[in-house]
Amino acid sequence: MRAQTPFVRWGHFMNLDLLAHHHAVAEWRDRAILEAARMLNQAGTTCLAAFDGEISEASIVESAWDPASFANLRIDRAMLACLRVDLPALLTRAAQELARIVPAQTDFVEGAREAADKLAWPEVQEEAGTTESLPEEESPAAASTSRVSRIGRLAQTLSTARFIAADTVVHLSGTASRSFKDRSGLDDRLRSAARRRITEGWMALISEPQSIMAQVIEIIDDRANLARSAA
Amino acid sequence: MTSLIDPIVLRAIPEAARIGLDNKTLHLFGSVIRRSNGTIAYHLQEAAPLAQAFGSANPMGMALQGVSAASSVANNVQTEIVRQGVARVQHGIKLLQQMGLANLALGGVGLGVSVAGFAIMNHKLDDIASRLGGIQDGLSQISAKLDVMRAEQDRAIISRMRGLTNLFEESWELTDLSRAESSWTRIYQDGADLEEHILAKAKIDVANIMAFPESEAHLDAFALVSGLRIAAQLAAGEVESARALERRSIADLMRLTGKIGVADLLLPTLTEVQPGSLEWDLTRISRAEELRPTIDRLRQRESLMATRTTFLPLLKRQGASPREWLQMARNEQQAPVLVLAEAEERG
What we know:
The complex is a heterodimer.
Chain A: H1 16-54, H2 60-65, H3 67-83, H4 86-101, H5 108-117, H6 140-160, H7 166-177, H8 184-202, H9 212-230
Helix pairs in contact in A: 1-3, 1-4, 1-8, 1-9, 3-8, 4-5, 4-9, 5-9, 6-7
Chain B: E1 9-10, H1 15-22, E2 26-29, E3 32-35, E4 40-46, H2 52-55, H3 59-64, H4 73-98, H5 101-106, H6 118-132, H7 140-173, H8 177-207, H9 216-235, H10 239-257, H11 262-266, H12 278-306, H13 312-318, H14 322-331, E5 337-341
Antiparallel strand pairs in B: 1-5, 2-3, 3-4, 4-5
Region (Disordered) (chain A): 122-147
């Protein structure tokens, strides 16, 4: 037996205005989400291009051991510069548009502003020292041997991490064992880490912690639900 | 004999309505044409001649078969009358196509109440059956057996829908009204669990966002069965029950599809493209274009299902019964769509 509909407002015969209102809100939601996605992607494109110019700053150690730290810091810093003002502004503009669809509800704009203020942006912690600082002083020769073995250990660790494909790990060990003569593979690892940061930290639909895209969609959905119930 | 409905029926979409739709002072919303202030100006109802929109590439040739061989003067006159009638039907269908209404009328929900005859219902059922065959969950080998089982269930659904449709059509041929009413009541009752069953399947489909637009077939099947039950109740004179059924079905549909937009279908498919790239943006734009018609169909289906009985207050004011109106649509010879004009539009 079908449950009684909680959608009681459909109980009114010929409530076409309500349906038209729902359609207008659905259209608004689509526009807002797709515009936010477009803005995030554009920022991502800009930041990835800029990141290419910063790759030369990375030490071999960073490139090989921890490309994610190097990439995340720079990508997050650049993305924040692109979006910290523009994305909340987009949400406010969208809320203003929604307020025109639902004139009875006036707090959309303020609500959107508050929600945008609460966006959990990635925290950018500036590097404590130079990228060349190592845990301990080592002679170049010793360091070289030691790095290879550490990379071997790191490769083992990384292989358990779900986001590193097995072939990348093999590539890492292989690259390292070539005594870092060929930086191109390492540079690719940095680029790959940067792309992953955009994908997971900024534009993923489902991720933990929530990406900026997921948070923005949630804010837009909340506004849309309010607008639907405000009719 | 003049019916109580005759004064408010138009056998073509009036020029004023077409002009209003063009200059946006009127808006098509499901089966009604609304004014800018939201009030209804016209109600649209599919009628029997709509079948000629898909029945034959050359409907005139079909219609003239049987009389064209005759050479007598009487037959020539008859031929001319038929020719004029067919020409009017063709003109009406062409107009519907130009207004984008033909596809709406031939879709799962249809325009108004689904009573335009077996040919049209059969066309809709065939369309749904062929699309149900296309739904797969993408798990290929693992789900092959499940696919077979699902296909069997879908065939059973179509078979039951055909059974109810046949019963509905035959009921109109009965001379004994009480027997007809008992058949219509049976359609209403027997259709209830079929509607529930299809709704449950539609829920599963809709949850699988990636299966769109193929998964719309169950939504159309749901619309068709609920429409058949509404038509049966109206024919049986159970107006309040028909209204309640319409309200329930639109509420069910809105819960299923009311919140789905382009973004919901689009963004999950972009995971295979690298974000932060021109390629992502170009893919977003092109896929959004591809998905737009699917979303338009969702919104149209919602509007059509919400406007299936909007003509009832007008008929009541006119003192006419819904059955008369449905019978008129079934008996219509020339107009593929009948129009009920609200008082303000009749001058």
